[in-house]
Amino acid sequence: MSPVTVSKGRSPSGPDDTFTQMADTDLEDIGRHCQYEYCGQLDFLPFRCESCRSTYCLDHRTETAHQCPREGEWARRRQVQNENQPPPEKPSIYNTEQCFHLQCKTLINTLKDPAVRCPQCNHQYCLKHRLREEHDCAKVVPLGARAGNAAPAETIKSMFARVRTWGRDKQQAAAKGTLLPALPKMKPKPNSPAARAVAVNGLKRSAKGDAAVPADKRLYLHTVGTAETQAAEPPSGDFFFDSRWKVGRVLDDAAKKLRVENLNNRVGGEDTKLRVFHVESGDFLEFSESIGAGKVKQGDTIVLLRGAGAVLESA
């Protein structure tokens, strides 16, 4: 009669072990006999070899102990499985969120940097800017608040007038061949084709966008958002867009990247909607036209203005 083994105090097998501890649910058939040729003892907590799929006792559970005829097969299967799995996606601005503080570039909602939602403005911040005093909560438009109440008409008119004046002055300076005036907090652009080409190449190295857009279809632009209060500095960034996209899609993508609240798809008046202002031409772009139709060139600047439609209607 084969000896009986009752194994106590042993921990279950781990993910890196070549064997798996078995559990019997049938009370009338508890235990298994070790299938090693020179053993055969009954073990109430047997192990299954993941390479040869046979059952063994505690002493012969490893491939070496029972001289496994298919030694290493489990390890090779797992290696192939790991190679076929895509590597974990590195956190970026396209697959995670960014701290809502305008000057902060910290990616939040990751294992390293959890997010903290402010109970007053309802936006999410990194640990450094989680307190109201750290992110100027009193000046932040609460998430879900009506933009018409948060951005006074005078603020909208002032911003619109400043950008439009800058665009008109830039056109006149370009016609005279003089240096172009700069939008506040932005560097002036060069006038000569060679200098402009250098500037565009620099823009291509720093701009961000959807990696799926073909390289020959990318339109690189300086992009400026709308500041919700007159004291706040408007968010800005360098991005590339698909030249085949409609202006409406470019607006949606730019607003998301700059974290500007976009209410264009909701019912409301012109005072809450965003429009795209092309600085070089001094014109607003129609939502239905393609961004790469010809008016907008590489390295140009577009500005997302809220309430500009209401200002134009009253002008």
UniProtKB/TrEMBL annotation:
Pfam family, one: zf-AN1
Stretches of the chain forming a coiled coil according to its record: none
UniProt cross-references to PROSITE patterns, sorted A to Z: ZF_AN1
Annotated segments matching region Disordered: 1-20
GO molecular function: zinc ion binding
Polar residues compositional bias, start-end: 1-10
PANTHER family: ARSENITE INDUCUBLE RNA ASSOCIATED PROTEIN AIP-1-RELATED, CDC48-ASSOCIATED UBIQUITIN-LIKE_ZINC FINGER PROTEIN 1
Gene3D superfamilies (UniProt xref): AN1-like Zinc finger (4.10.1110.10)
Name of this chain's protein: AN1-type domain-containing protein
Domain of life of the source: Eukaryota
Any one of the GO CC terms: cytoplasm
AN1-type domain boundaries: 28-76
